[in-house]
Design brief:
Length: 60
C-alpha cells in the first residue's frame, strides 16, 4: 500500500510543473478523471462495505 501511495505522489509531483502549460482540454480531462474517481470510491464504499445503495430511488 505504501509503494502505491509513493508512486501516485511521485506522478503528481512530476506533473505539477507542467500545470501552467496545460491547455483547457487537459485541465478538464484531469478534473473529470478526479471526479469519476471520487464517484467510484464513494459508490464502492456505499455498495461494498455498507450495502446501502438502492438505484430505485433515483429512477422515481
Amino acid at each position: 500500500m505504501i509503494a502505491w501511495r509513493a508512486l501516485v505522489t511521485a506522478v503528481l509531483l512530476a506533473a505539477l510543473p507542467l500545470w501552467p502549460w496545460m491547455t483547457q482540454y487537459y485541465l478538464l480531462l484531469a478534473f473529470d478523471a478526479l471526479l469519476f474517481g471520487a464517484i467510484a470510491m464513494s459508490l464502492d464504499l456505499l455498495m461494498g462495505y455498507t450495502g446501502l445503495v438502492s438505484f430505485g430511488h433515483a429512477a422515481f
